[in-house]
Amino acid sequence: MIRKCLFPAAGYGTRFLPATKSMPKEMMPVVNKPLIEYGVDEAIQAGMDGMCIVTGRGKHSIMDHFDTNYELEHQIKGTNKEDLLIDIRQIIETTHFTYIRQREMKGLGHAILTGRELVGDEPFAVVLADDLCVNETDGVLAQMVSLFKQFRCSIVAVQEVPENETHKYGVISGEMIKDDIFRVDDMIEKPEPGTAPSNLAIIGRYILTPDIFDLIEQTEPGKGGEIQITDALLKQAQSGCVLAYKFKGKRFDCGSVEGYIEATNYCYEHLYKQNQKKVALDQHSTTKED
Ligand code: G1P
User: Which of 223, 190, 189, 229 is nearest to 209 (CA)?
Assistant: First the structure.
């Protein structure tokens, strides 16, 4: 029912300079996969097949990554290196990528509005690739999609954060209507220390209904002089309904060096090594069968 996922990916990634001087931050590898591919995997797992990428100057490698590289394919054809491309080939064959360039950096709300032409008039997901989310069963987007099926309104993913970190996030307050589900009555983008309405911070996963686009258009620049999705969502909450969902799983802030290192260690131990073991077992059983 939700087919499209929007990835705002025009930002500079200044916290990772000089690495991000000519390489998009979304292409930073976490073990052997670029950050954005984790987000795409999560969207596919949630049933989506249209990836709408809002890109900017110097971001060509994102497009190249989700495209066939004939020269490379030719070079490694018939070798065991081909195995390393199985997952990305599968993504390319089953998923549709569209791109639009954001010419000016005017905030997350503006980036989402830039994607309007790609999304059209239907509910859609938003993934901020910086926030890498993992869960052993359903991913965060899949959890949010099943919630959307019940409530049919915009949903933000939230997580409890220590009080001294609320100023880094959009923070919500609301009434708990069910386990882990809140009906939002207030939300503030990066509140000044001591003024946060709760410790429930928005993380980079959203399901948005398409009326959000008109609301963003009517939104004045807010925190940092930027057009904030948080401000547009507050209007939506006040005139209709927005839910906040305390998701199941782990989230790593790969926009910070510490979070990126934690994500790398976690993914190495829990995803990469497990996968290597599985491949070894598969090979072992195929050799036995031969
Ligand atoms: C953005 C949003 C903020 C949210 C955060 C999650 O901020 O504006 O509301 O809490 O993503 O990562 P940014 O981190 O891009 O400044």
Answer: 229
Instruction: List, for residues 242-253, the tens digit of each pLDDT value.
Output: 999 999 999 999
Atom index in ligand 1 nearest the CA of residue 253 equals 12
- The residue written with tokens 């931050």 in the block is 25
Share of the chain above pLDDT 90, in %: 80
Q: How far, in Å, is the centroid of ligand 1 from the Cα of 36?
A: 16
Return the residue whose CA atom lies nearest to atom 9 of ligand 1.
Answer: 170
Ligand 1 binding residues, C-beta < 6 A: 108, 128, 131, 169-170, 189, 201-204, 228, 230
What are the angstrom distances between the C-alpha of 196 and each of 79, 88, 169? 56, 41, 10
| Distance between start and end Cα atoms, the chain | 43
List the chain domain ranges. Answer: 4-256
Cα 132 to ligand 1 centre (Å)? 13
Mean pLDDT of the chain: 93
Q: Which CATH class is domain 4-256?
A: alpha beta
Examine the pLDDT at 290 and tell me if it is beyond 60.
Answer: no
Atom of ligand 1 nearest to the CA of 229: 8
